[in-house]
Input
Amino acid sequence: DCIMTLRGHENSVWACAFSPDGRRIASASYDNTLRLWDAASGDCIMTLRGHDNSVWACAFSPDGRRIASASDDKTLRLWDAASGDCIMTLRGHENSVWACAFSPDGRRIASASSDNTLRLWDAASGQQVGFSIHLLSDGEFASLTPDGSRVIQVSRGAWRDLGWLMPDATGALTRYPAEAFGPLPEYTG
Output
């Protein structure tokens, strides 16, 4: 049975998450906002505004002090769960960000995007850390350095999808195979 209905968003709600203590609920909406709710009363505590497009996902940090959100505006945002202030905006995805999650220790945030990448971020600095995993056709993948300048590892058939867009003298973009910039390190796992 339904215990309560939380109303307040002006459009579809795409995701929700309980705070670790179970006392609050965050919701992400097509109306470009997140809302923070009291889980016992159902009252809206605050509305978090800042995204320029739909918000697809939200997640509380393990200590419940921060909320991460993922949006169609190609960003993640990190919010103070007490004040509702936007602490920082994480940029790097090239298309809508569909999902986000904190690591169990709260030091990292993982994100997934329709640019076919998974990225890992430092929750304190907002900088991308480690590498990004690019999901390619037919289950192939490539791992790249955070700045995209180097290929770390690829699956066997990834060469079909990899390449770099480079402008020619007229400014038109041409895709060159990744091998033109050195041998591809092969997946060994």
User: Anything to note?
Assistant: The mean pLDDT is 83. DSSP finds no helices and 16 strands in the chain.
